Amino acid sequence: MKKLLVGGFALAAMVTVLHVNAQSGYRKSQTQQKPNTADTGKNKPATQPVQQPAANPASTQPQAVGNANTAPAATVRYDTTGGFDTKAEISLRNNSAVDRSQVKDRKPLEYEHLRDDDNLWSEFLWREIDAREKINQSFMYPGKDQNGEDQRFYSVLLQAIKNDSVTAFAPENDRFTKPLTMEKVMDLSAGINDTVEVPDPVTNTVEKIITKKPRFSPDSVYTFRIKEQVIFDKEASRLFTRIIGIAPIAKEVVAGKSVPRLLFWVYYPDLRKTLAKVDVYNPKNFSSRMTWEELFEGRYFSSYIIKSSANNPGDKYLNAMIKDPLFRLLEGENIKTRIFNWEQDLWQY
Fold it and tell me: Is residue 127 within 8 Å of residue 304, measured between CB atoms?
């Protein structure tokens, strides 16, 4: 029992000594870290930041170069992701596991010759393709091909005009009467300058202010107008549908309302060589993609009729004769049914 008491007292004394030593060491370390108030700053660490005087807020603003009233340079062009005026980034290696070097050598098949004497009946139709429909989503595919070019159909049209010398025509009429230069086409794609004359009451002078209308992005051009001719050839005893021209339509905001604006017309037979070299996006199978030329010739798209040359002596669109959009759509379906029945009624079973 005595041995246990002696051992307990010895253990308590040892714990007390250790606690006292720890407290003294802590006080010593705190004393060493306390700064000397008599120090004049000679021993301050070199990494201490030096306070700078506050800068004048006005001096941080960017300085204007030249006259503030100078109009923006005319060289500013329409640019998007990848830009139509910028150089495309070409892949330096084959971006596919298969050899696709022959894609650019494809050519469209020649049309079957149609004689005017064999033209028993014909009718002109104007259609519009809405790329927001699910079947037409390939018209708005924003991917890049091997040459770094945008695969939207509107971009394909610009590539044909820019690289393949396809002529674009003014949108005033669909008879391809006024050709447009490449610079004019790019200006149409970028928007047009709007000039407003503002009189100065002090100097009695008129100042012209040039503003740029909103630019069009590729995603805002999702409607395409098609002019085509339906012909019944009595020698072949079949109905032919030939596309004559294609025109992209952009949406322009005027007075707070979205107004469709026709950009330009492209003669479709001139465009076929370019369309035969560009594949259409296929979400189901990448290896079975068709070309744009095959898509139009095979009629793999959805459209609605907006004008017909039959029973139209005033050469008016359906929206000028029928105000209700639902009835206009039904009238377009009636025109399709009338053409289909006309061909079927020629045969007797």
Answer: yes
Does residue 239 belong to any structural domain of this protein? yes
As beta bridge partners, residue 196 has 209
Structural domains of the chain, count: 1
pLDDT tens digit sequence for 58-117: 344 344 333 434 333 333 333 333 444 445 677 777 777 777 667 778 889 999 999 999
Handedness of CA 178, 181, 187, 190 (dihedral sign): positive
Assign 44 to helix, strand or coil: coil
Q: What is the torsion angle, in degrees rounded to the nearest 10, for the CA atoms of residue 105, residue 109, residue 115 and residue 121?
A: -130
Does the residue 250 lie in any domain? Answer: yes
Q: Which of 240, 304, 229 is nearest to 268 (CA)?
A: 229
Does 185 reside within a domain? yes
Q: Which domain holds residue 120?
A: 75-85+116-302
Q: pTM, whole model, 2 decimals?
A: 0.68
Between CA 228 and CA 339 the distance in angstroms is: 14
